[in-house]
Design brief:
By secondary structure, the chain is mostly helical. Helix content is 81%, strand content 0%. The longest helix has 37 residues. The chain is elongated. It starts with a helix and ends with a helix.
C-alpha cells in the first residue's frame, strides 16, 4: 500500500473545509459557561464534603 503525503494533505485540507467553526462570540459564551459550571460544581462538592464531614464526625463521636 503506497502512502502519498501530498494526497494525505489534500484530503486533510478537504475535510477541514467541511468543519463548521464556531464564531468568536460562541467561543466566548461557551468558555464563560464552562467557568460557571466549574464554579457551581466546586461549590456543590465543597458543601457536600462539609456535610459528610459533619455527619461522620457526629457518627464517630469525634469532637
Amino acid at each position: 500500500m503506497a502512502f502519498s503525503p501530498f494526497k494525505f494533505l489534500q484530503e486533510v485540507r478537504s475535510e477541514t473545509a467541511k468543519v463548521t467553526w464556531p464564531t468568536r462570540r460562541e467561543t466566548t459564551i461557551t468558555t464563560i459557561m464552562v467557568f460557571v459550571m466549574v464554579a457551581l460544581a466546586s461549590i456543590f462538592f465543597f458543601l457536600s464534603d462539609q456535610v459528610i464531614r459533619v455527619f461522620v464526625t457526629f457518627l464517630l463521636g469525634i469532637h
